[in-house]
Recover the amino acids of this structure.
C-alpha cells in the first residue's frame, strides 16, 4: 500500500505520518526531512536545497524527483510507504506515475489561519523530527517521544510560511483535482485535533484494506 499525504504546510502531514507508520508498519518518506538531513550534513544536495528551503520555494524538480526515485526501493522493507511532501506539483506527480503506483491520496484540509498558528508555534525534535506545538509543551523544551532537544525550523517564520502557502496554492493545490480524476483522493478535516483526524484516516484505510 502506497499512501500520499497531501496538504498545506502545517496541515499535520508529518504528525499523522509518524503515527500511521507505527500503527500500520509503514515506511515514511518525507522529502522535507531528506533535505533537512542533507543540509545538516552539508552534502552537495544540501547545498543546492538550502537556498530554496530558506526562501520557502520548491527545490528544483530534477533534484527532488531523482532523490525519490533512487530512495524509494530502500523503503520497501515494511508493509507499505507513506509519501509526505512529494509530489508537490504536477510535474513531480507525473514523474512519480512513471515509477510508482499510488493506492490512496489523503488530503488533509485545514483553514488558513489555523495553518499559520500551527506553523509559527511548531517546534521540531533534532533527533527524531517529530513536531510539537508550544501550546501543548507547557514550557518543556524536549521531545515527548525521545527526549531530544526541540528547535524552531528556520522556514517556520511568518514571512517564509506565507511564501510556502503561496507555493502551495499555486503548485500543490492542483494535485487535488489531479488525484480526484484518478479516483484515489480522500479528504479529511484537518482542522480537528490530531486524534480525531487519525480516526477519519483509520476509517478510510480500513475500507481500502477490505
Ligand atoms: P511543510 O510541508 O511544512 O512545508 P516540508 O518539510 O514538507 O514542510 O518541506 C520543507 C521545504 O522542503 C519546502 O518548503 C521545500 O522547499 C522543500 N521540499 C520538500 N518537499 C519538496 C518537493 N517535493 N519538491 C520541492 N521541494 C520540496
Ligand atoms: Zn524526538
Amino acid at each position: 500500500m502506497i499512501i500520499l499525504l497531501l496538504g498545506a504546510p502545517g496541515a499535520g502531514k508529518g504528525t499523522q505520518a509518524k503515527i500511521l507508520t507505527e500503527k500500520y508498519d509503514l515506511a515514511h518518506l518525507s522529502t522535507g526531512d531528506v533535505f533537512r538531513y542533507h543540509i545538516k550534513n552539508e552534502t552537495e544536495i544540501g547545498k543546492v536545497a538550502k537556498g530554496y528551503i530558506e526562501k520557502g520555494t520548491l527545490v528544483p524538480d530534477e533534484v527532488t524527483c531523482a532523490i525519490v526515485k533512487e530512495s524509494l526501493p530502500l523503503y520497501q522493507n515494511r508493509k507499505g510507504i507513506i509519501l509526505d511532501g512529494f509530489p508537490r506539483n504536477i510535474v513531480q506527480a507525473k514523474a512519480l506515475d512513471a515509477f510508482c503506483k499510488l493506492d490512496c491520496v489523503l488530503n488533509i484540509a485545514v483553514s488558513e489561519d489555523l495553518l499559520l498558528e500551527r506553523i509559527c508555534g511548531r517546534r521540531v525534535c533534532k533527533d527524531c523530527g517529530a513536531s510539537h506545538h508550544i501550546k501543548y509543551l507547557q514550557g518543556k523544551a524536549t521531545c515527548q517521544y525521545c527526549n531530544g532537544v526541540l528547535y524552531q525550523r528556520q522556514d517556520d517564520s511568518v514571512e517564509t510560511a506565507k511564501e510556502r502557502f503561496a507555493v502551495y496554492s499555486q503548485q500543490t493545490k492542483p494535485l487535488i483535482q489531479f488525484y480526484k480524476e484518478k479516483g484515489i483522493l480522500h479528504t479529511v478535516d484537518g482542522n480537528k485535533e490530531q486524534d480525531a483526524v487519525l480516526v477519519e484516516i483509520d476509517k478510510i484505510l480500513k475500507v481500502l484494506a477490505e
Remarks:
- The beta strands are 2-6, 26-30, 80-84, 104-109, 122-125, 131-133, 150-151, 185-189.
- Residues 9-10, 13, 31-32, 35, 52-53, 56, 58-59, 64, 85-86, 88, 92, 155, 164 surround adenosine-5'-diphosphate (ligand 1) (CB under 6 Å).
- The radius of gyration is 16 Å.
